[in-house]
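SAMPLE LOG
Freezer: B-3
Tube label: C17
Construct: single chain, 93 aa
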Amino acid sequence: MVDSRCGLHCNGCEYKESCGCGGCIETNGHPFHGECSVAVCCQNKGIVHCGECADIPCELLMQYSCDPEHGDTPQGARIEQCKLWYAQMKGIE
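STRUCTURE (predicted):
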């Protein structure tokens, strides 16, 4: 189930309860920390998530995924999740 634009899973996220975050899809690109540039990029392109973008992984998504402090463990996990969502959508998993 797609629950974010960048591949990060909102279900189970600590900010969902502690900050009342609705996630980037539900908040139209404005999760708990303010405007999300990844979400806005997807919205401007008319796509649901980064996996649908021809430029995956773009520099912006790489910055989010590989940030040393707030990035993925392991690095690149959300990029792979977006690719998986795209494959599932196309029935090519």
